[in-house]
Amino acid sequence: MPVVNCDTYKPPLLFRNGHYGTIYPALFRKVTRPAFKRERIDTEDQDFLDIDILRNGNKKVAFLFHGLEGNTDSQYIKAAANKLHASGYDVVATNFRGCSGVPNNKIVTYHSGFTQDARFIINKYASAYHESVVIGYSLGGNITLKYLGEDPDHVHPSISQAIAISVPVHLSDGSQQLMKKENFFYTQNFLKTLKEKIREKDRQFPGQLDLSLLSKVKNVWDFDEYYSGPINGFEGAEDYYSKANSLQFLLDIQIPAHIVSAKDDPFLPKSCFPFAQAEKSDKIFLHAPKYGGHVGFYERGKDYWIESKIAEILRLQEQ
Asked: Which domains does the chain have, with CATH numbers?
C-alpha cells in the first residue's frame, strides 16, 4: 500500500489492445480547445516559455505538463484543462521550450529531467493561489515526479498533490522499450519532429551541431546519445537517463503523488511500474489498470477514463 486497485476500468474490446488504445485517442479524439490566453514569459537564462492559461478568479490552480513532442494542443492537455476549469481550477498549461511552434532562443532544449522550467513556472504562478496541483503526462510526468523528489524541501508549499500519467520513470529501460519492432511507428513519429528541430537549431546556431550524425539516428536512444544528451550538458544517452530518471527520487517525495500507468502501455517496460516504491511510501500511489495504452485510457463519452481518474483523485465536482 498504496497500490490502488483499478480493475473496474474495462474499455470496449478493441481498446484492450495497448497499441489500439494508444493510437486511436492520439489520432481520432476530438477535444474542443479551451479558451486559453497565451503569455510569453522570459526565463532566468534569457530564453522564453509560451504558457497557455485559463483564469476565472479561482482559488486553486492546476499546472499541466505535456509529453515528448507534445504541446498544449495535445488532446489529453485540452481534455484535462476543460475538466479542471469546469471544476473550479484555473489552469496553467506549459509549452516546453521549442514546443509552441516558435523556436526557443537557446541551443538547450526541454528534456525528461529539465525541472528548472517546471520549478520556474510553478514559483511564478502558484503564490497567487491557496492550492496547487501538478499533472504531467509521459515526459511531463517524469519531470513532475523528479521536481517533487529531487529537492523536496523547496517544492512550492501550495502544492497539495500531483498526478503523473503514463510515466517512463526508468528512462533507460523506456528508451530500450521503444526500440522494439512493434514500436517502430511511434519512434519514427517522434524522430520526424525531433530531427527537424535539430536542423532548425543548426540554422539558429551555425556550426555548433554536427548534422552528419542525423544519419545515425535510428531510434530515440540514438537521438539522445548524439543530440539531447550533449546539447543539454550530459555525456550521452545513458548519462542523461541516469541523472534525469524520476525513479531514483520517488521515495523522497513528501506530498501525495499518484502515478497512473496502464499495464498494456507499449512504451513502458516492467521497471516503469514502481510497485516496490509505492508499497514502501505513504506518499506514492500507483494506479496500474490492465488497459489504457500510452496516454490513452479510452472511455465512451466526453471524458475518457483518465479524466474521470483525475476527478476521482482530486475529488472534483463540476460547477
From this structure: 3-169+245-314 (3.40.50.1820), 171-244 (no CATH)
- Mark 100-111 as b/e (b = at least 16 C-beta within 10 Å): beeebebebbbb
pTM summary value? 0.97
Counting Cα atoms < 13 Å in the Cβ hemisphere of 32 gives 6
Which cell numbers in the block locate residue 224?
A: 539522445
pLDDT digits (tens, 9 = 90+) for 148-203: 999 999 999 999 999 999 999 999 999 999 999 999 999 999 999 999 999 999 99
Query: What one-character-per-residue DSSP string does 26-68 give?
Result: HHH---PPP--EEEEEE-TTS-EEEEEEE-SS-SEEEEEE--T
C-alpha 81/C-alpha 319 separation (Å) is 14
Cβ(22)–Cβ(294) below 8 Å: yes
Distance (Å, rounded) from C-alpha 132 to C-alpha 121? Answer: 12
State the helix-helix crossing angle for 115-125 and 139-150, rounded to 10 degrees.
70
Q: Are 116 and 147 in contact (CB under 8 A)?
A: no
Side chain identity, residue 70: G
